[in-house]
Amino acid sequence: MTDLYQSQRAMRNMRKAAMQRGVIAILDVGSSKIACLILRFDGDHRLSDDGVGSMAGQSQFRIIGAATTRSRGVRFGEIAVMNETERAIRTAVQAAQKMANVRVDHVIASFSGAEPRSYGLAGEWDLADSVVTEQDVARVLSACDVPDLGPGREVLHAQPVNFALDHRSGLGDPRGQIGHRLACDMHLLSVDGAAIQNLLYCIQRCDLELAGIASSAYVSGVSSLVEDEQELGAACIDLGGGTTGISVFMKKHMIYADAVRMGGDHVTSDISKGLQIPFSTAERIKTRHGGLHATGMDDREMIEIGSDSGDWEKDRRQISRTELIGIMRPRVEEILEEVRSVLDAAGFDHLPSQQIVLTGGGSQIPGLDGLANRILGQRVRLGRPLRVQGLPHAATGPAFSSAVGLCLFAAHPQDEWWDFEIPAERYPARSLKRAFKWFKDNW
After folding, report:
1. Other CB atoms closer than 10 Å to residue 355's CB: what's the count?
2. What does the record say about its membrane topology (predicted)?
């Protein structure tokens, strides 16, 4: 835990240094594509007045370079073949640098998968002075009792979502206020540590420095949910290629995140196996002719498969659109049923607003919103990322929700545990710093 706390602090400092230099790269490592955006900052670092999130400062930015490439070596949102993923990242970064005509050394990356788990933590602290200082905030965060995450697990996000001072709850930023007892609720997201280490090692092999890391489920919610949805309570379902990310927001903070290890690639795989055609052909047919609701017209609409096997009869095969829908619909229903069970386990039904927003490349299948209405609930809409200055038109679709959200995460970061100087006595028992402090105080 201490190592991660220190490395996250180091990454946050690197991000600030890169923003002051004016240029930083965004890298979205997905199962179906790898996207790289290059941001230029104007250097106008202002403090926001939006409660928690005011420490890191904000900055206006413009996208000056963008590139995507087909993802290679990534399965279920995790790196499976290091060399291929490295080559794909290099391709995307170099193309974006060429478009921007600038070289970047620091990247902020997002990834899906890695078996995320959410924890809600609470801590309390009696104030020595009646005025809340930044050190008091650090102490109440460190007073949160971190559970045993299990072997090989690392903390990816640790965000304070609510502060209470004496009997007053719902405070965004308690600093400067007067009271006697400060309490805090914190959301902690842990992931499989090996997935983070592999991504870190892969980015280092590309001669880049990692200046920040985020869950793609979280950043997709940041870019796809409008302000009212983030405030009142909403779930963002990011239908990616290898995984489907789920994040729940309340009071502008993520309070829950999870992932289902199924996505659009599984639908393509079903088409490929069902029709006995190559994966690339199945992807083309899904994109051009796919759907989830069959009508009487679809029996008569014939789709020419057109493959290159050399067998004339097989290459000239045709299927009706109804047959294609019959292959796609069961898998999409299965994915949505899994999402429904995750939301039920998270207690989503108890939120004041049960808005659900579907985004990601897989959300573009025609008829998905109607099917999702039946399985997930009545309040479902399709979400696109917010408009960002300089974003190419080709990158404005739902497939780029996590990349655009990562830009917003870089420019307007929320406060996390490692933004505060945690007192040494709250480090884990094996920490050298704690031992050093004990010797200094007692000898």
Report:
1. 20
2. Peripheral membrane protein
Q: What structural domains and CATH numbers belong to the chain? A: 117-192 (3.30.1490.110), 265-331 (3.30.420.40)
3-class secondary structure, 29: strand
Phi/psi class of residue 231: alpha, beta or left (left: φ > 0; alpha: ψ in -120 to 50)?
alpha
Query: Which residues are CB-contacts of 426 (< 8 A; sequence separation ≥ 6)?
Result: 139, 142, 143
Locate all alpha helices (DSSP H) within 121-249, ordered by sequence: 134-142, 193-205, 216-224, 227-232
Least-confidence region, from 320-334, 354-368, 425-439: 425-439
Task: Taking the CA atoms of 292, 293, 294 and 297 in sequence, report the sign of the dihedral they define.
Answer: negative
Using alpha carbons, select from 117, 136, 240, 121 the residue that is nearest to residue 179.
136
Q: Would the pTM count as exceeding 0.85?
A: no
User: Residue 68: is its pLDDT beyond 60?
Assistant: yes
The sign one gets for the Cα dihedral 124, 130, 136, 137 is positive
pLDDT of residue 436: 42
- DSSP lists the bridge partners of residue 25 as 38, 107
SS3 168: strand
Tell me phi and psi for residue 191, to 5 degrees.
-135, 170
CA-CA-CA-CA torsion sign (28, 73, 363, 95): positive
DSSP structure string for 228-270? HHHHH-EEEEEE-SS-EEEEEEETTEEEEEEEES--HHHHHHH
CA dihedral of residues 328, 331, 336, 337 (deg, nearest 10): 140
Lowest mean pLDDT among 9-23, 44-58, 400-414: 44-58
Cβ atoms of 105 and 162 closer than 8 Å: no
Residue 274: its H or E element: helix 264-275
Pairing of the two strands 168-171 and 74-75 = unpaired
pLDDT value of position 333: 92
**Reported confidence tier of residue 430, pLDDT bands at 50, 70, 90:** very low
How long, in residues, is the chain? 443
413: tokens are 């970061």
User: Nearest 5 degrees, angle CA 365-CA 406-CA 255?
Assistant: 85
With tokens 């490439």, the residue in question is 69
Task: With beta carbons less than 8 A apart as the criterion, state whether 128 and 175 touch.
Answer: no
**Within 10 A of 394 (CB to CB), how many other CB atoms are there?**
10
Residue 431 has pLDDT above 50, yes or no: no
